[in-house]
Specification:
9 helices, five-stranded mixed β-sheet, 5 strands, alpha/beta
Length: 237
């Protein structure tokens, strides 16, 4: 009886820890989105500097001014905020490390299914960083995008076998959509790169056929994804 009570208390502590972690992720995600929206608005309403740089230099030469004598052009508040936004977005990197550590703890308990369910609840942008952080921890060279939006369907790059592979990260709770697979395959073909399509959902028969017809496109999901994240196995390519 005492053993059962002790086990119940342990399980409750683990569940409470998961709940607190999920709440923290949601709060940080909402704050990040508010900052992103405000940055977009500020950049849109900030007047853009006018005039052509070459014409300005020509006029300076005609007036006998050297470029060193010309006053330094200050960046606008919108431009400074946009640059700060790129740095601010990186709060997701330390958050991804915390989530990755938690995934490792759950997987070490032999509950890879629960680890996958936990992963499906994180913010999609944090999921992107989790993958890049996992590659980085395992000694791979990675390249992060400057922005999370407007990335052209690429969520990062990783050096494998002396070549950069393109990464597409999809945090699904259900089956992946075949059109997403096809779009990423098209991007890889245009850039003449291999691609890693990494997701947390299920791979349906239509999507599976697309992977089979695209030899340069590789799938990482399910148990193999968890094993990769906890450094029990590589990406499988």
């Amino acid at each position: 009886m005492e053993e059962w009570e002790a086990r119940s208390k342990t399980e409750n502590k683990i569940m409470n820890k998961d709940k607190v972690a999920n709440i923290a992720v949601r709060v940080l995600t909402r704050l990040g989105r508010w900052v992103d929206r405000f940055a977009d608005w500020l950049v849109d309403v900030t007047p853009k500097p006018s005039g052509d740089g070459e014409e300005t230099r020509d006029r300076s030469r005609e007036n006998g001014e050297s470029e060193t004598e010309r006053p330094r052009v200050e960046t606008t508040s919108g431009e400074r905020f946009a640059a700060g936004r790129r740095e601010g977005e990186r709060w997701r990197i330390p958050q991804s490390r915390k989530v990755l550590d938690r995934i490792t703890e759950i997987a070490d308990e032999g509950q890879w299914g629960r680890a996958l369910a936990y992963l499906r609840k994180v913010d999609p942008l944090v999921f992107e960083e989790i993958l890049l952080t996992a590659f980085e921890r395992q000694g791979y060279r990675i390249e992060r995008n400057e922005r999370y939006s407007g990335d052209g369907g690429i969520d990062g790059r990783v050096m494998i076998g002396g070549r950069f592979w393109l990464i597409q990260a999809k945090r699904y709770a259900s089956a992946i959509r075949p059109e997403h697979v096809q779009e990423f395959a098209d991007v890889c073909r245009r850039q003449e790169r291999n691609g890693l399509f990494i997701h947390t959902g299920r791979t349906g028969p239509n999507s599976q056929r697309l992977f089979e017809s695209a030899p340069d496109l590789h799938l990482l999901s399910g148990r193999k994804l968890i094993d990769f994240l906890v450094d029990r196995d590589g990406p499988g390519v």
